[in-house]
Specification:
The protein is of the alpha/beta class. The chain has helices spanning 19-28, 75-78, 83-99, 103-106, 121-134, 143-147, 151-160, 175-188, 205-208, 223-226, 251-257, 285-298, 316-330, 343-346, 353-367, and strands spanning 4-12, 33-35, 48-50, 111-116, 166-168, 194-201, 242-250, 263-272, 307-309, 338-340, 399-406, 410-417. The chain has a ten-stranded mixed β-sheet, sandwiched between helices. Helix 13 (316-330) links the parallel strand 9 and strand 10. The model has no long low-confidence stretch (mean pLDDT 97).
Length: 421
């Protein structure tokens, strides 16, 4: 089967709005979590979020939005976007430039687009309320395409004139993991030469605060300590929004264009827990199977893995389940492989999380570093056998596992490999 390489990255995130800023934050373990102004009310138990800087998208009217001057977006494109659609559009422009894709490359029938988001709860609530109060005739003609979960596909396919495969993925926090996996399959089987994978979320009150009802969010008022995977005092995840875009290409396309890859997407695996609608299997059985399948798909062994970018969201149950899965796969070798969760810095991006973290792993492969464990002060004694670097290491991993788990026990694991490894 053909090899698949990562050739372009785009970021709008709490730790930076381009690859240089994101890499700098990772090297310095600089987080992007802040006290979020709309949460600073007595009736709101959650206070922090991974905030997006330099964008103002709180209005339901796109004409009121502001964003960095480097982007020029026509009004007719903006009017059908959700807030995260703007993030995604900007990140996609970055990724296209980074991969040095020409218009003919982008609009080829062999270039496709897979996306994932939860839609825009803010806009959906607004449009439904408007319909009820003012009547159907006062509904926006673009209200549906701007707010429902397929909004990224609708807008990006039209704006960038994508003619290859396109669809959306919905498996909660594993969504862009699945999108990347199926994009990989499309390329290795020859159905497409190039796939662009996009994950984005609004990251606002309506998108994040409902998780407080599940007791899943950290109530911490200290931004630096709110997201602390593997810590004995972890007490829930910190939500975030933004966008991440990954360009995947076949080996032949890379050679033909003379592109410089970040690394290889070498294989992937998935498995389901079959256990609970919201909680991971206590033994991590589905994730362990997904990791084993990913390693088999890539033709590597656990002994070859240097770094695991864990899904670990900083919840008590989820982190413990993932560690059990890692023990199942790595056995006595568990103390060798470096493990960290970059959600300690970024917050949890929900459906965009795997795309964001795959981009982070790609930066590490080419940039020569291994991300450390931000926010970690006191390791949970149950995890004392893990290799949890407290600082970012100046060593490039050769083989990386990137894990994702979503509601319903959906598990995805991706294998990334350095070029020539």
């Amino acid at each position: 089967m053909r090899k698949v390489f990562i050739t372009g990255l785009g970021f709008v995130s709490s730790i930076g709005n381009d690859k240089a800023a994101v890499e700098s934050s990772l090297r310095e373990l600089r987080h992007g979590i802040e006290l979020y102004p709309p949460f600073q009310r007595p009736d709101v138990p959650i206070k922090v979020m991974g905030t997006i800087k330099d964008f103002s998208v709180g209005s339901v009217e796109p004409e009121d939005w502001t964003y960095p001057s480097r982007y020029s977006i026509r009004r007719e494109l903006l009017r059908s976007m959700a807030p995260h659609g703007l993030y995604a559009h900007c990140a996609m422009l970055q990724a296209i430039e980074d991969a040095r894709l020409a218009e003919a490359d982008l609009q080829s029938e062999l270039t496709g687009l897979y996306c994932a988001s939860a839609g825009s709860p803010m806009l959906l609530a607004h449009y439904i309320q408007r319909m009820r109060e003012l009547g159907v005739s006062r509904c926006s003609p673009v209200g549906v395409v701007a707010s429902i979960s397929g909004t990224l596909n609708f807008n990006l396919v039209a704006a960038f004139k994508i003619r290859g495969h396109s669809c959306g993925f919905s498996s909660a926090c594993a969504s862009t993991g699945h999108a990347l996996g199926f994009a990989y399959d499309d390329i290795v089987t020859g159905r497409q030469d190039r796939m662009i994978v996009v994950g984005a979320e609004d990251g606002n009150t309506e998108a994040i605060l409902p998780f407080a009802g599940m007791r899943a969010l950290s109530p911490s008022t200290e931004p630096a300590l709110a997201s602390r995977p593997f810590d004995s005092a972890r007490d829930g995840f910190v939500g975030t929004g933004g966008a991440a875009v990954i360009v995947l290409e076949s080996e032949e396309s890379v050679a033909r264009r003379g592109a410089t890859p970040y690394g290889e997407l070498a294989g992937w695996g998935q498995a389901s827990d079959g256990h609970n609608v919201a909680i991971s299997h206590p033994e991590g059985s589905g994730l362990a199977t997904a990791m084993q399948r990913a390693l088999r798909s890539a033709g590597v062994t656990s002994a070859q893995v240097d770094y695991i970018n864990a899904h670990a969201t900083s919840t008590s149950i989820g982190d413990a389940s993932e560690v059990k899965a890692i023990r199942t796969v790595f056995g006595a070798d568990i103390g060798r492989v470096a493990v960290s969760s970059t959600k300690a810095l970024t917050g949890h991006g929900l459906s965009m999380a795997t795309a964001l973290e795959t981009g982070i792993c790609a930066l590490a492969l080419r940039g020569g570093f291994t991300p450390g464990c931000g926010g970690l002060r006191n390791v949970d004694p149950k995890f004392s056998d893990l290799n949890l670097p407290r600082e970012t290491l100046p060593v490039a991993p050769r083989v990386v596992l990137n894990n994702a788990s979503g509601f319903g026990g959906a598990n995805v694991s991706l294998v990334l490999r350095a070029v020539g490894a």
